[in-house]
Amino acid sequence: MAYSVHGPKAVSGGAGARLRRGEAFYLVEIVRGMAITMRHLLYNMFHSSTMPTLEYPDERPEHGPWLRGRHRLMKREDGSPRCVACQMCATICPADCISILAQDDDRPDVEKSPESFEINLLRCVYCGMCVEACPCDAIRMDTGIFELAADSREAFIVDREFLLNNTTDGVNR
Amino acid sequence: MNEMLTELGYTLGKIGFMLAVILGLLPAMIWAERKGAAYMQDRIGPNRASIGGIFRMGGLVHPIADVLKLVFKEDIVPAGVNRFFYHLAPFLVMVIALTTFAVIPFGDALYLGDKVIKLQVADLNVGVLYILAMTSLSVYGIVLAGWASNNKYSFLGGIRATSQMISYELNMGLAVMSLILATGTVRMDEMVQFQGHLLFGFLPAWGVVVQPLGFILFLVALFAETNRNPFDLPEGESELVSGYHTEYSSLKFALFFMAEYANMIVGAAIVSTLFFGGWQVPWLSTDLLRAHAGPLLTGSAIGATVLSFVFTAATWRHYERFRGRLGDRRELEPLILGILFFALGLATLGYVVFQKPWTIDSAMAAHFATVAQIGSFLLKTVFFAWLFIWVRWTLPRFRYDQLMRLGWTTMLPLALLNFFVTAGVVLLVNS
Ligand code: SF4
Ligand code: SF4
User: B202 or B63: whose pLDDT is higher?
Assistant: First the structure.
């Protein structure tokens, strides 16, 4: 009530400010404010585990399956990539960060497969367009890995093997 | 000659003690500031730095990490600074903060054999005036830093510090004058002695009881003089980047940073000395302390035992509850601390049982009284140092015109009123 932002009376400072009698005597309000902060301090001292803060590297945040994390390439039953190197993802990618080198495949039911499949994770904007575009569900972003850290720029350009070995439990390899 | 040397030794010992108190409290203050602020704002605060991957001590390791970081940072001297004053300023701030401590008594006279040692580094006969002089000198470091940095923001910060100091030094002086009138002395040790009396037989004659208004005025002025929130306009980072220490880096910045806390500790010591009885233990004069040293010592030893076991239980509970949550050596910390507390509890228990502290002799009783008084002084100082932090995380910063208005149109008349009323009362009582 006393701290309402609206209304003509509740103005802070300024030449025309009018405070109620109790508030004009600043000290009382200071003591009340200090009581509030002390209350928070004491409560948190004995309930520190109920604080909303997530102790991040020790505790992992929960996220839904809709999280667009690091990409992975799906495998066929024999372990080869599902990808048919159609270049759809590379074409739609707004960041232009996928580069695929196609090769002829000897198997009777497979025409092409990627000889190399590289994604530059530094350029990727995690929009998920590649996943939408893929005609054979060969690329997904459901690994749950959302952290990006490496020692060099080159390390962010991930290759076919890396992408094939990503798993859904959020742990790489 | 020999006499002089021992005298010098004692003085050096006292200086060492004082320095140890300030420099020991510094990291604790920085820790309290960060952790206290976090808890007041429902955050967890610093807790990552650790010693050996085990001891995090609730963030107590962080100040060490901070200082180490600052020590190893590059020391940049910007072009165009006035080199002499630029380098002088941080040292000035720190040195003045430390020298103010010299006149503060931290215990009643100590008897070693037939020698009497006053527990005060410099027993000046102008004690209070020395404190006023030193606190107003402390602004020089800030002004010099602001001016020598050759930076508009620093300069503005320095100017703000000056005008703020002038406005609030008046009120501080008047508050202290009223106190001098009431106690009738300007010597620090006599002032503390005076506060050992009881008013009406039950109320300790602390400065805050004799001069309640004077205490409030003094406290507010002290906040302004130490440039602490809500009066930290000289470094108001919302408009002045970082104020007077904008251009400082590395160790020199660390000096400014630590000087702020040293100033707070010194300010807290001054308030507790002038208005809260200094080293006086309330209701227990030195003679009473010595006479009842046995039971008091026993009581405190038992209290320490109980507290140690309570801590043991608390740390054990913590260990049990959070086992397996972190999955590394940090989980051992409460266990190890619990064992230490348990050992401490056993030690104090053994002390009570085998040493029989209620039978101590009079020499030991005198030492006990001294230790109790130093403890009382430190406790009060720590409380007021905490008050600085507490207020900082409660109040927003004043606007500059509000600060001036408060100083000149509210506090100055009140201080004058307080002064004249005190003078009148003293005149009435004495005639
Ligand atoms: S998520 Fe978007 S930016 Fe990243 S690779 Fe796929 S299409 Fe390109
Ligand atoms: S869209 Fe799918 S199949 Fe086509 S290249 Fe990309 S990942 Fe391979």
Answer: B63
Whether B155 contacts B148, CB under 8 Å: no
- State residue A124's pLDDT score: 92
Q: In angstroms, how far is CA B351 from the centroid of its own chain? A: 32
| For residue A91, pLDDT beyond 90 | yes
Distance of CA B202 to the CA centre of its chain: 28
C-beta atoms of A51 and B391 within 8 A: no
Ligand 2 site residues (CB inside 6 A) read A 83-89, 100, 133-134, 136, 138-139
* Dihedral angle of Cα B163, B164, B166, B172, to the nearest 10 degrees: 180
Q: Which ligand is nearest to the CA of A124?
A: 1
Beta bridge partners of A157: A120
Domain boundary pick from A33, A60, A87:
A60
Q: Does B395 reach chain A within 8 Å, measured CB to CB?
A: yes
Q: Residue range B20-46: average pLDDT? A: 86
Tokens standing for residue A138:
């060969």
Q: What interface predicted TM-score (ipTM) does this complex get?
A: 0.76
For chain B, the straight-line distance linking the first and the last C-alpha, in angstroms and rounded, comes to 49
Q: Flag whether B286 is in a domain.
A: no
Judge whether residue A18 has pLDDT over 70. no
For residues B233 and B160, give the distance between their C-alpha atoms in angstroms, rounded to a whole number. Answer: 7
CA-CA distance, B34 to B26, in Å (whole number)? 13
Nearest by CB to residue B36, choosing from A27, A41, A51, is: A41
Q: Are residues B269 and B393 in the same domain?
A: yes
**Do B14 and B96 share a domain, yes or no?**
yes
What pLDDT sits at residue A67?
Answer: 86
Q: A156 burial class (0-12, 13-18, 19+ CB within 10 angstroms)?
A: middle
pLDDT at A23 over 70: no
* Integer Cα distance of B331 and B212 in angstroms: 49
Phi-psi region of B42 (alpha: psi -120 to 50; beta: other; left: phi over 0): left
Residue among B42, B325, B399 whose CB faces A40 most closely: B42
Same domain? For A38 and A88 the reply is: no
What's this model's pTM, rounded to 2 decimal places?
0.78
Confidence of residue A21 (pLDDT cuts 50, 70, 90): low
Which of A123, A126, A143 most suits a substitution to test ligand 1, by most atoms within 8 Å of the C-beta?
Answer: A126
Summarize pLDDT for B92-122 with one digit per residue, the tens: 888 888 888 888 887 777 777 667 777 777 7
Quick check: B198 pLDDT over 80?
Answer: no
